């Protein structure tokens, strides 16, 4: 019989932050809010404040736009996205090769973050649903990563899983864009990933399925999840 080397730990919320990661990549979580606050790569020296949150855009019903939001159409109702929660429960499992962080953001959003001893990236697995509809509002659920970076409206998305193409918010290379959809008009299809860079550091997200991504504000990346 082999001894289990994984230890599950619940932390005292009176502490301030928790560092997770058995390898060069470290992630810091606030024990007061349960949210990600910082990422550090001890090999490269990168150390950036960073946040991750779950939000949802209210879906347009078509009363103020000729096209309603639907299964293959993203049309938010024009209002700002609603933050799902500002507090998350936090549980950590530590092992010799991998640390896992379990977060529950509300009754229908869960997340597991894994950091491996010999890897310099974090793996995130989310579970969403069933999405509540008791308020009769459709919800376009996203996750948003916010970093302390100056990106000047520029981000990069893959083209059919091949080269990454430069995207500039509210801009098209071949014609003058009339912005009527400031959110949906800046979302692009992702098969591989999306990243932002500012000359000092780069923040990349790789996806395991086709989805949509955007950078609506400088230093931010959004992924459409549901």
From TrEMBL:
SUPFAM superfamilies: Galactose mutarotase-like
GO MF term list: alpha-mannosidase activity; carbohydrate binding
InterPro entries recorded: Gal_mutarotase_sf_dom, Glyco_hydro_38_C, Glycosyl_Hydrlase_38
Domain Glycosyl hydrolase family 38 C-terminal positions: 24-226
Gene3D superfamilies, per database record: Golgi alpha-mannosidase II, domain 4 (2.70.98.30)
GO BP annotations listed: mannose metabolic process
Name of the protein described by the UniProt record: Lysosomal alpha-mannosidase
Lineage: Eukaryota, Viridiplantae, Streptophyta, Embryophyta, Tracheophyta
């Amino acid at each position: 019989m082999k001894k289990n080397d994984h230890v599950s730990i619940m932390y005292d919320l009176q502490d301030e932050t928790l560092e997770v990661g058995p390898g060069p990549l470290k992630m810091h979580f606030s024990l007061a809010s349960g949210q990600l606050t910082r990422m550090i790569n001890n090999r490269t020296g990168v150390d950036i404040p960073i946040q991750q949150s779950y939000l949802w855009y209210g879906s347009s019903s078509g009363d103020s736009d000729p096209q309603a939001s639907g299964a293959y159409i993203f049309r938010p109702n024009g209002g700002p996205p609603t933050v799902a929660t500002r507090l998350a429960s936090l549980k950590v499992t530590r092992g010799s090769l991998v640390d896992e962080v379990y977060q529950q953001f509300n009754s229908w959003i869960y997340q597991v973050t894994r950091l491996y001893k010999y890897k310099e990236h974090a793996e995130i697995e989310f579970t969403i649903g069933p999405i509540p509809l008791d308020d009769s509002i459709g919800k376009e659920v996203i996750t948003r990563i916010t970093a302390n970076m100056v990106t000047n409206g520029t981000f990069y998305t893959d083209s059919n899983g091949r080269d990454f193409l430069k995207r500039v918010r509210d801009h098209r290379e071949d014609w003058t864009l009339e912005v009527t959809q400031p959110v949906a008009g800046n979302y692009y299809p992702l098969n591989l990933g999306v990243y932002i860079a500012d000359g000092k550091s780069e923040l990349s997200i790789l996806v395991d399925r086709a989805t949509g991504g955007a950078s609506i504000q400088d230093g931010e990346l959004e992924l459409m999840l549901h």
